[in-house]
């Protein structure tokens, strides 16, 4: 039984939205006491995290904080030792990856969802076809394939890749590959997109482009991203959760967490010293 969520009522299995309208304070995904131990070592220790629908939520923290482990728990790459995960109020702790995809939770892989030797357009067509339930549509009239093509081009335009449509994926510049990866994820029309360091290894120009792209695709969906680049986080994140040694040490807006003494201390002397340096240079 799910209780206590504003705007929701529960009939035990399904959670029904009373107004039938998304609310700004509606929680789309939540973890309670989520824990992962590796042979007794606590990589993620009792994390309570709430992500609001429509938000870009960033998960940050120094190296070894447990970000990747947490991400892998959410996306079912790892099984939690303890704790629970709820999506739209429903316990999905034991759900299969296929069930997550059905519910609209999609992880953007670092190029693993992209066929390197296919064209950009064909990659997106495959992604769109996959969401139709089967990859074979021999019996479908030509008109439906045209619709598929126009949808694919529309999607490519939305990620600024239309001029690369006929290029082979492997030949794309790095930042464009990441844009294609986001396009193939978008083809699945996710409600919640999970991005693991989308700007990692990018040039300054590509970082700007991907940041703008994430903001654009987040207009009608929720994004939870692990991100190292503090300027990206400060630009697009509606809310930030800071992990350190597997625990949440701060949660709030960039303005709030960046002046939190625990956060400044956590980043002090670490490789990701953005917070520490930002603040030491202003004092
Ligand atoms: P982050 O992504 O924040 O840098 P990780 O989630 O990768 O941190 O790692 C958190 C801690 O858990 C680290 O100390 C790491 O060494 C440890 N860890 C991660 N995966 C494993 C594993 N499969 N086995 C043992 N320890 C692990
Ligand atoms: Mg990591």
Explain what this protein looks like in three dimensions.
- The protein has 283 residues and is α/β, with parallel strands linked by helices.
- It has ten helices and twelve strands.
- Strands 8-9-10-5-11-12 form a six-stranded mixed β-sheet, sandwiched between helices. A four-stranded antiparallel β-sheet has the order 4-3-6-7, covered by helices on one side. Strands 1-2 form a two-stranded antiparallel sheet.
- α3 crosses α4, α3 packs parallel to α5 and α9 crosses α10.
- The chain is globular and about 55 Å long.
- It starts with 7 loop residues before the first strand and ends with a helix.
- The N terminus and C terminus are likely disordered.
- Bound molecules: adenosine-5'-diphosphate and magnesium ion (MG).
- The site of magnesium ion has 2 residues, from α1.
């Amino acid at each position: 039984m799910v209780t206590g969520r504003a705007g929701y009522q529960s009939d035990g299995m399904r959670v029904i939205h009373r107004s039938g309208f998304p609310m700004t304070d509606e929680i789309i995904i939540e973890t309670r006491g989520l824990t992962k131990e590796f042979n007794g070592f606590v990589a993620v220790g009792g994390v309570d995290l709430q992500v609001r629908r429509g938000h870009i939520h960033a998960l940050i923290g120094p190296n070894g904080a447990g970000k990747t482990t947490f991400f892998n728990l959410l996306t079912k790459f790892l099984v939690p030792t303890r704790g629970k995960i709820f999506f739209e109020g429903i316990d999905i702790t034991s759900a299969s990856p296929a069930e997550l995809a059905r519910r609209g939770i999609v992880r953007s892989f670092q190029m693993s969802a992209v066929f390197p030797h296919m064209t950009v357009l064909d990659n997106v067509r495959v992604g769109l076809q996959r969401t139709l339930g089967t990859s074979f549509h021999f019996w479908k009239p030509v008109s439906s394939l045209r619709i598929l093509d126009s949808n694919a081009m529309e999607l490519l335009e939305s990620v600024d890749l239309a001029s690369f449509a006929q290029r082979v994926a492997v030949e794309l510049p790095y930042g464009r590959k990441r844009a294609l990866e986001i396009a193939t994820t978008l083809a699945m029309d996710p409600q919640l997109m999970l991005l693991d360091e989308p700007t990692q290894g990018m040039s300054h120009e590509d970082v700007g482009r991907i940041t703008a792209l994430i903001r654009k695709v987040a207009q009608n969906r929720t994004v939870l991203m692990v991100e190292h680049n503090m300027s990206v986080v400060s630009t697009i994140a509606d809310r930030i959760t800071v992990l350190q040694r597997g625990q949440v040490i701060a949660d709030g807006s960039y303005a709030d967490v960046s002046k939190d003494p625990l956060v400044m201390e956590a980043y002090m002397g670490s490789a990701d010293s953005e917070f520490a340096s930002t603040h030491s240079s202003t004092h």
